[in-house]
Amino acid sequence: MPLVSTRALVLQSFPYSETSKILRLYTWEHGLLSVMAKGALRPRSRYGGVLEPFTEGQAAFYLKPGRDLHTLSGFDLVRSRQALGRSLVGFAGASLLAEMVLRVGAEEAQPALYAALAGAWDRIAEAPTTAEALAASLAGAWTLIGLMGFAPQLEECVVCGVEVEPGDPVRFDAVAGGVACTRCRPAGRMLEPESRSELRVLLAGEVPAGGVGRPGTHRALLRAFLDAQLAHDKPFRALELFLDHAGAARPAPASPADVDVA
Q1: What's this chain's function (predicted)?
Q2: How far is CA 186 from the centre of its chain?
């Protein structure tokens, strides 16, 4: 039962008993795993209340081969990201990213996924406006989707394989996994060129300055894609929270053309 030390992100934290916690961590060297923090809920705990979601630190724990639960020995705080609590949209977006990694992350090291999640949390926390917190959350979600192997196809029709130009009329087929030309998908709402261009930017992990042009469209795209590709009949709990707060933050209601996705 070796003692190992690795950089770790706290995805989830919940009480195990009157004095202890169980943490779900995403680590740099060991991927997704669970640890028990004994005594973490005691008033004078040596962890000092830092074992909360979105926290990053150097975690030391006893790795038990073949076991699902390991024992935390220490946690040296690197970043708390308390700023995420200032915005309902940012907090909900960060929670959705954590849930995505909990759902799809593996017990294998994937440093790129770790870096993408940590970077997305930082960008959300640092976003100066609600619109940019929304865009940073969308960028984080689409970046994780791509790293998990589910990136939507945007340059060719997912049905016939014909290349679609930036200005071509297309629809978004979440079940098929990308855009479809109007010959293959004659019915349904169009995905306008501006939103398709922004989606490319979001997939690259970049945040459009000032936010996205049609937030309602992007909320609908993300919902449809997560439901079709990753949910597997088990909806993401944080998704509705994120979409509700993101929608409430809009200065005006979305039009029907903004929210329907083919």
Answers
A1: Involved in DNA repair and RecF pathway recombination.
A2: 32
Q: Going by C-beta distance under 8 Å and a sequence separation of 6 or more, which residues neighbour residue 261?
A: 171, 172, 174, 188, 189, 191, 217, 220, 221, 224
The label of the residue with tokens 């009949």 reads 233
Phi, psi of 2 (to 5 degrees): -70, 150
pLDDT per residue of the chain (262 residues) written in tens, 0 to 9: 789 999 999 999 999 999 999 999 999 999 999 999 999 999 888 888 799 999 999 999 999 888 899 999 999 999 999 999 889 999 999 999 999 999 998 888 999 999 999 999 999 999 999 999 999 999 999 999 999 999 999 999 999 999 999 889 999 999 999 999 999 999 888 899 999 999 999 999 998 888 899 999 999 999 999 999 999 889 999 999 999 988 765 443 333 333 345 4
Tokens of 60: 């030391």
Residue 153's DSSP bridge partners are 178
Domains of the chain with CATH codes:
3-80 (2.40.50.140), 83-259 (1.20.1440.120)
Q: Tokens 């009157």 identify what position?
A: 18
Q: How far is CA 79 from CA 18, 65, 74, 171, in A?
A: 26, 29, 15, 41
Amino acid at 43: P
Which amino acid appears at position 217 of this protein?
Answer: T
Compute the distance between CA of residue 45 and CA of residue 51 in angstroms, rounded to an integer.
Answer: 11
Separation of alpha carbons 24 and 68, rounded Å: 11
**What pTM does this model have?**
0.90
- Residue 10: count of CB within 10 angstroms of its CB: 24
Of 88, 97, 85, 147, residue with least CA distance to 121: 97
For residue 221, give both structure tokens. Answer: 């795209």
